[in-house]
Design goal:
This protein is an alpha/beta fold. It contains four helices and six strands, in the order αββαβαβαββ. Strands 2-5-1-6-3-4 form a six-stranded mixed sheet. Strand 3, helix 3 and strand 4 form a beta-alpha-beta unit. The longest helix has 9 residues. It comes from Sinomonas terrae. Its EC number is 5.4.99.62. This is D-ribose pyranase.
């Protein structure tokens, strides 16, 4: 049994396949899910698990070189939270974000019920 880190089997397995440049999307429970690509659905009930809980867990395991959020969420607590933990955060329209989500190697659906609580993470390398 794993001692620490992400215990969810499908999410842990998906993380193990990520390489430099791969895209991981952490999504609220309202983001339309793309038809292609693996989706790890962690949503249990509204708010559980939260966007911040899931993103914190992922940031403990991933090297991130950049991130993208939706412009519509500018000034929100979620955007401020993302900006405080990541460098290289840019923004695009929510419509563009939904198209970008369809390119993700992994999409993680949270139970977050806050509008625009979504982020696309571009994986980096630790060297």
């Amino acid at each position: 049994m794993k001692k620490r880190g992400i215990l969810n089997g499908p999410l842990s397995a998906a993380i193990a396949t990520l390489g430099h440049g791969d895209l991981v999307v952490v999504a609220d429970c309202g983001l339309p899910l793309p038809l292609n690509g693996p989706i790890v659905d962690l949503a249990l009930v509204p708010g559980v698990p939260s966007f911040t809980q899931v993103l914190d867990a992922l940031l403990d395991e991933l090297v991130i070189e950049s991130a993208v959020v939706a412009e519509e969420g500018r000034g929100s607590l979620v955007e401020g939270w993302v900006q405080s933990r990541l460098v290289g955060v840019s923004s695009i329209s929510h419509e563009q974000f939904k198209r970008l989500a369809s390119e993700a190697k992994v999409l993680v659906r949270t139970g977050e019920a806050t509008p625009y609580a979504n982020v696309a993470l571009r994986c980096g390398v630790p060297f």
